[in-house]
Amino acid sequence: MNNRSAALLIIDQQQGIHSPALGPRNHPEAEQRIAALLAIWRKQGWPIVHVRHISRNPQSVFAPGQPGAEFQPLLSPLPQEMVFEKNVTDAFIHSGLERWLHARAINQVVITGVASENSVEATARTASNLGFATCVVEDACYTFAKTDFYGTPRSAKEVHAMAMSNLQQEYAEVMTTAQLLSGLGFTLS
């Protein structure tokens, strides 16, 4: 993957994601990792896409008209950066993202954000299925603890690890921020 021509996708980095109601999460440094990638993409003039979830559920942390739907200040888009809104987990569904990427001859995406097993995984699967070379930056993604289908409580680390395992080699190249930056000739400070 030549990440120099890849679009950086930042998924659902909104204020509502910090709601205590969501429970314990993994990768507390994920936002700083995303910010480091964002700074490099900006400095290099590479394509950046911010994805904002606007929920149809009025009880959601991402319900429209509430502070939770707003971007986190650290990761807010600049006026020239593209923003796509979604109402489902997959950033490609009914958003125009695929068309936007094709119109710019972008055939690679680097995915960051939340939640690992929801919007990140769904978006990565679709990106791959649509023919985009797909990279998921695992330590620039995170999720929350949840109970599995059989009723067993799973930590955020376990949920995240399974999501990354689901994606690795089948749908995406999964790597750390340091690995991605090293491949681009940068180091993580």
Automatic annotation (TrEMBL):
<dbReference type="Pfam" id="PF00857">
    <property type="entry name" value="Isochorismatase"/>
</dbReference>
<protein>
    <submittedName>
        <fullName>Cysteine hydrolase</fullName>
    </submittedName>
</protein>
<dbReference type="GO" id="GO:0016787">
    <property type="term" value="F:hydrolase activity"/>
</dbReference>
<dbReference type="InterPro" id="IPR036380">
    <property type="entry name" value="Isochorismatase-like_sf"/>
</dbReference>
<keyword id="KW-0378">Hydrolase</keyword>
<feature type="domain" description="Isochorismatase-like">
    <location>
        <begin position="6"/>
        <end position="179"/>
    </location>
</feature>
<dbReference type="InterPro" id="IPR000868">
    <property type="entry name" value="Isochorismatase-like_dom"/>
</dbReference>
<dbReference type="InterPro" id="IPR050272">
    <property type="entry name" value="Isochorismatase-like_hydrls"/>
</dbReference>
